[in-house]
Amino acid sequence: MFKDLVVRKPIDQLMKEAANTRELKRVLGPLNLTTLGIGAIIGAGIFVLTGQAAAQYAGPAIVFSFIFSGFGAAMAALCYAEFASTVPISGSAYTYAYATLGELFAWIIGWDLMLEYLFGASTVAVGWSGYVVSFLEDFGIIVPSYLSSAPLTQDPVLGWQTTGAFLNLPAMFIVAVMTVLLVIGIKESAVFNNIIVLVKISVLILFITFGIAYIKTGNWVPFIPPNTGEFGHFGLSGILRGAGVIFFAYFGFDAVSTAAQEARNPKKDMPIGIISSLAISTVLYIAVSLVLTGLVKYDQLLVPDPIAVAVNAAGPGLFWLRPLVKIGAIAGLSSVVLVLLLSQPRIFYTMAKDGLLPKRFASIHPRFKTPYVTTILTGIIAMFVAGLFPIEILGALVSIGTLLAFAIVSASVIVLRRTQPDLPRPFKTPFVPWVPIFGMLFSFTQMIALPVDTWLRLLIWMAIGLVIYFSYGRKHSKVQNM
Fold first, then answer.
1. What is the pLDDT of residue 7?
2. What ranges make up the beta strands (E) of 134-180?
3. Buried-most residue among 116, 289, 322, 473 (CB within 10 A)?
């Protein structure tokens, strides 16, 4: 029985499926894939978490947190790049696990990826709602809190409570808009994403370029604030804690791998998209965090809109940039929602093609050539999750789900290198097994640091997934019935 659970899908079969699949349009080049990655990465992390992590944990040394966290993300990105070029299928980590660790592990990671992509889209939509409400207030348009807040919240002591709000309607609205766009077509979605990415990168470059002139070097003293006596609050331990918190800012580069079957030359272009998007985002993160902490003393950055606060602190000379910063944040968060909602349906699509989900999930729209059934399903679920739950709960689930995916992909590289050493690899992860080992260690370390409640939710989520697998997926698996 156990042998059946770890049955693997042969690499040559995966390659044959990739070559024969004509249902999805191959329209994405390296530029589209790179902007797709940037679209997913640059969002809540840079526009919200940077200031909060600096204020609570690392001070100006948040720069080192970004470097440390970026190193961990780079380890996982190199592993994703090898798989994306070797096995160019839209299933991402699910497909990689199927080819190396077996069907049960593939199901677990496929189910887990919902926490990253589906719940991630909901999380970012809630952040988008906050910025839009603030932007509208600048023009005297007030959105009532009972229509822009979650009706449910969780207190560490009292547990789940109602807030008196109805639904977070702006969060639901952005999910609905992006879902419609994704049903219409991947090319149209990519063009829209390219425009948004251009807007938010332009805003960040403007902030860096004009903000440098207003930096007060005294705000950088001390660059590494002394530890308060509590682990994680400044000092070296604060840099590590800050790295764990802002690691959320690096989530998204792996979303590029879900578009493999819509890439024109996936073996060459997928590694470019994954590595380039992460590298560009990391450079922007480091530069923005330096300017941010130079404009404002770090202990004043515990706010929802730290970059806007920094613009205000610079004085009248930068007031013109404040509305642009909010527009950039709204655009940035919009593109993250778009890319995450693009990724999840393609995981469902691949799982359905393997028989682990109903055939209906693999339906392609006759005109738009998109997986419209799973796109609409993903959008509906994400809408209600975004409307009902607070960002804190959703963010923790996204973190643990993504880190688990990173760890499994890193392990899979080592397994595949041992089991099929002669397999053609257009891109090879350097320094194997050390890079994958560091990727696993970094991911597991971050997971251990997350709250116990988050682990309990992960276990409950996985238990639900296993029930579905054993009651449906295993019985209908094409590999099991070959």
1. 82
2. 152-155, 159-162
3. 116
| Residues 469, 214: Cα–Cα separation, whole Å | 57
Q: Name residues whose C-beta falls within 8 Å of residue 81's C-beta, 6 or more positions apart in sequence.
A: 270, 271, 274, 275, 427, 429
pLDDT, tens digit (0-9, with 9 covering 90-100), for 115-148? 878 888 888 888 888 888 878 887 889 999 888 8
In the structure encoding, which two tokens stand for residue 398, read together?
A: 């996204």
In 117-211, where do the E strands start and end?
Answer: 152-155, 159-162
Q: In CATH, what number is assigned to the domain containing residue 344? A: 1.20.1740.10
In a domain, 288, yes or no: yes
**For 263, which DSSP code?**
B
Q: What value does the mean pLDDT take over residues 316-335?
A: 84
Higher pLDDT, 54 or 6: 54
Q: How far apart are CA 428 and CA 271, in angstroms?
A: 10
Residues 407-448 have pLDDT tens digits of 888 998 998 899 888 888 888 999 999 999 999 998 888 777
Structure tokens at 29: 């080049």
Asked, for residue 482, whether it belongs to a domain, the answer is: no
Which class for 466: exposed (0-12), middle (13-18), buried (19 or more C-beta within 10 A)?
A: middle
Domains contained in the chain, number: 1
